[in-house]
């Protein structure tokens, strides 16, 4: 990467007209600069994985801004069967934790352990199977919903697919569509709402039975009622499969469902505990976050939540 980059740089210096001719080259450099290093593949691929994740004293800054520490001695634990929520102001480092968990970048100090072994010692492909990340704006393929859910897990049965869709609270709306699971997400793309797309993406993540599920703002397009139903369904799956869930969300309705809440600000854990514990901290950061959201909750009060039978 370095060689390629320097070779082209030399070209650029000596032949300005070449630079002009390949307009947009800056964009390529921007991309090359940003792309993180690919670590050597590990060897571990144990048959049984519990899904215990531990960030131990992790300090990290992005290669592009080496002087700005984004995570400063962060320690965090994800436990099987539990949902841990990361909350805090924008820029606090929540998504950066996900980037590190996905091994896009390496901690500068400290380490990330999976079942007690460094994340780097596991095989890439193995980790891809075991860690599933759903982001805020998932993309659907112009294929049937069935193919979208089974993507990457083509050997899954229809029963597996339905189970995954149920755990993502997607089964009910899919079966109400005229073509059900055969609905073409391409042709009917405009009829699949943002919230429905997010649920299909969660189902796609669940079909591989990950041991670690990361929801990075992955339910943000759902109304509070549907979101609650998703979390209810996910809770069942989480207990059954003993999956560790890392939730990043801005809405209290999602966060308060977590077993453990970590308030992250400026790359540091400022507070952690359960919702009930954290709201009791006088002038606490989480308590303040809850207060701010109360108005919105009051506005929705009385609507109640009735999840459809799936
Ligand atoms: P939000 O709630 O807005 O998603 P966050 O808590 O997830 O925020 P991060 O996305 O982890 O925060 O960002 C933390 C800091 O890292 C921010 O200052 C951001 O600008 C910076 N950052 C994120 N990605 C990169 C990158 N690829 N290169 C350089 N800096 C980055």
UniProtKB/TrEMBL annotation:
ABC transporter domain sequence ranges: 53-291
Subcellular location: Endoplasmic reticulum membrane
Superkingdom assignment: Eukaryota
Family to which the UniProt record says this protein belongs: Belongs to the ABC transporter superfamily. ABCB family. MHC peptide exporter (TC 3.A.1.209) subfamily.
The name this protein goes by in its record: Antigen peptide transporter 1
Covered residues, full protein: 467 to 776 of 781
């Amino acid at each position: 990467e370095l060689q390629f980059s320097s070779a082209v740089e030399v070209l650029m210096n000596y032949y300005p007209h070449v630079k002009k001719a390949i307009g947009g080259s800056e964009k390529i450099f921007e991309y090359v600069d940003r792309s993180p290093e690919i670590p050597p593949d590990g060897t571990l691929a144990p048959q049984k994985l519990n899904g215990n994740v531990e960030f131990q004293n992790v300090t990290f800054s992005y290669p592009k801004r080496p002087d700005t520490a984004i995570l400063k001695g962060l320690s965090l634990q994800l436990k099987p069967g539990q949902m841990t929520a990361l909350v805090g102001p924008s820029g606090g480092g929540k998504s950066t934790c996900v980037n590190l968990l996905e091994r896009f970048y390496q901690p500068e100090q400290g380490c990330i352990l999976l079942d007690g072994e460094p994340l780097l010692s596991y095989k890439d492909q193995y980790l891809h199977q075991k860690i599933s990340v759903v982001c805020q704006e998932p993309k659907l393929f112009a294929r049937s919903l069935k193919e979208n859910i089974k993507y990457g897990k083509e050997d899954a049965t229809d029963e597996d697919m339905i189970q995954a869709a149920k755990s993502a609270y997607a089964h009910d709306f899919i079966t109400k569509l005229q073509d059900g699971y055969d609905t073409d997400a391409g042709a009917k793309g405009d009829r699949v709402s943002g919230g429905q797309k997010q649920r299909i993406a969660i189902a796609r993540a669940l079909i591989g039975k990950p041991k670690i599920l990361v929801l990075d703002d992955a339910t943000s397009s759902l109304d509070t009622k549907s979101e609650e139903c998703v979390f209810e369904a996910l809770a069942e799956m989480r207990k059954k499969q003993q999956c560790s869930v890392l939730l990043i969300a801005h809405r209290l309705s999602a966060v308060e469902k977590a077993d453990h809440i970590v308030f992250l600000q400026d790359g540091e854990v400022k507070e952690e505990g359960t919702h009930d514990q954290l709201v009791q901290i006088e002038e606490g950061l989480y308590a303040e976050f809850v207060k701010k959201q109360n108005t919105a909750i009051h506005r929705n009060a009385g609507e109640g939540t009735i999840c459809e039978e799936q």
